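Need the bound structure for magnesium ion, inputs here:
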Amino acid sequence: MDADRFEVLVQHSYDAIVLTDASNAIVYATPAVRQMFGFEPEALIGRNGFSFVHRTDRGGAVERARGLLARPDGTTRAEMRVRHADGSYRWCECTSVNLLDHAGVGAVVNSFRDITDRKAAEELAARAESRLQALLEHADGVILLADRDGYVTWASPGAERLWGWSADTLLSRQMIAAVHPDDQREIIRQYRKMASAQRLTVRVDGRMRHGDGTWRWYESVFTNCLDDPAVGGVIANVRDITDRVLADQALRNSEAQLEHQATHDALTRLPNRTLLHDRLDTALARARRTGTTVAVVLVGVDHFQVVNEGRGHAFGDATLRAVAERLATHARSGDTLARFGGDQFVIVADDLRDEREAMDLADAVVRAFDHPLSVRTEADPDPAELFLAVSVGVAVDRGHDAEPGELLRDADGALATAKSRGGGRSVQFVAGAREMARERLHLETELRRAILRHQFQVHYQPVVDLRTGAVASVEALVRWQHPQRGMLLPGSFIDVAEETGLIIPLGAWVFDASCRQLVELHDVLGGQRAPLSVGINLSARQLAEDGLIDDIGNVLAATPIHPGHVCVEVTESAVMRDPSATADRLAELRVFGLRVAIDDFGTGQASFSYLRDLPVDVLKIDQSFVQPMEQDPQAADLVAGIVGLGHTLGLEVVAEGVETDGQLQLLRDLGCDRAQGFLFSTAVAPRAVVDLLRSRPTW
Ligand code: C2E
Ligand code: MG
Ligand code: MG
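Answer from helper R.:
Posting the output first, comments after.
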């Protein structure tokens, strides 16, 4: 190649070419150095080549040059930073050829290629790589690469910290091996689905075993990059979500608990009113579709207050639980048994064919309490036996147009009627609450009129002294001579009188009339016999009335009667309504010289201990104990117990409701003091009392 052509090539070469001599001094530089390093080629002549090399790279360059000088025609190649005229450095690839011995050249030929951009790119790549490493190391998940069958081919460095397995341990294992047996199916299913389509991502949660042996919850996101040459596998992103899952579970549990608390009664664990309304709503809607009948059976415990106050609230609570259990055995599966509040429970029975079925259910509920309840309190490990009766009110969705609230009100009205008819075992069925209310209102108006029109009478039932067989006293029992309905017994009006307060004037009238008629009786009978006494019933409302003592005081002052011949009768449940206030009232009555009897004794099933502190003279055993005496030894035992108890407390004991000679005989054997009942006589008009006493003096 001629010199001119060479010169042109050199001038236009992109690479910069620098010739150095054996002592590394620059002897020639191509114009490209201007562009590459900012120096004029002439300015470089005579300078030491190494003085332009970066300090860090200089040692290596010197070393290489030395070796090169020893090898004529030898070549070295190295990357180094070379100073620019502006003080910065350029990355260069430098190829040096030892042509010192070459006749035409006689120098070392160093050609420089600027690789600054490439270096920068490499550095960037390296930095990105280490940043990625750091990210993977500190990511909150483990990243795995796996093959189509789930064998791990690569694991991110965080694996050990997050999953307890080192990346090495994971390699060549199948991920599924760590999965909880219960979760394997789903994970395999999802993995297969993912593996079926390129770029498909699936997410699946499941338990996997941690390196420490515990099961933890992980969320795995699998992405199919099997056909992506850059990846060539499935990317699995595995994140520990145990805390979140546990928190979710705790939240769900507490939500469920709250939901349960809001819809259930804490004492009996039965559905409460809120849930009852819902269930009733559902039942009514279903009945409308199927044409069946829904019944609301409302159950109230009779005299529950007496149990609660007499034996304490803990015992009361335990009793309610026992009642709930007993009722539960009578609700059919599908029925809702709920606590309605207080001592009331509701059975919602749906899918009934007709009303009769509802009444059968109600009857069964009443009969369910024929056997005593076994009441177990925390304080006392031995269960207590308790006889309780329930009243039941039933309402039925006849026309398929009732609202839950209406049905419940109807059942409530029916229950009130059942209770007013003596409570205990009666079941009442009403068409609707509105009719009930109307009936009651009508009765109230009639009662007011009856008092003004003197439609009441007092009848007297004899009470026999069991030692002498003679009539010792009579009980005053009010009757209503109704213009249309004839003679009405107290059962059909006393409750309404009590509720409306009409019992106050009515009771005052009975007291006055009874006292005056007793005086008349004494006059008629003269001195033929020991003077009769009279028992007069007082209701709870009368007892609580402030004017009672004044009214009675006035009657006693106006009538020539010996107060010792008058015995006021107060029912056990009336006493228990407010025992201490009643005790004060009874004590005041005794100051007049009146005697006091506890009526219907035993129906409350209360503890007898309160009796000791009560200012009373007479105990009247309720007829529900007396009547079964002959057939039921337990009833006889109970009567014996009450007689014994009364005598221990120095009380006179009267048996009510004696209807048979057998009962009379048993009572005599037990040493009961007095008896009253249809065996001797029903309650009769005053004139008939005289006839009776004259015709049949003793039993
Ligand atoms: P009580 O005071 O326990 O009266 C006894 C009730 O038992 C009376 O019912 C009486 O007729 C009934 N009886 C008596 N012997 C027998 C028997 O052998 N067999 C049966 N099955 N029953 C018998 P009556 O007259 O219907 O009175 C019911 C209740 O009404 C009374 O129960 C009393 O609590 C109340 N009462 C009656 N008169 C008055 C009154 O003037 N004022 C108040 N506040 N209450 C009254
Ligand atoms: Mg009485
Ligand atoms: Mg009685």
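Comments: Residues 461, 477-478, 489-491, 494, 507, 510, 537-539, 569, 571, 599-600, 623, 656-659, 676-678, 683 surround C2E (ligand 1) (CB under 6 Å). The mean pLDDT is 89.
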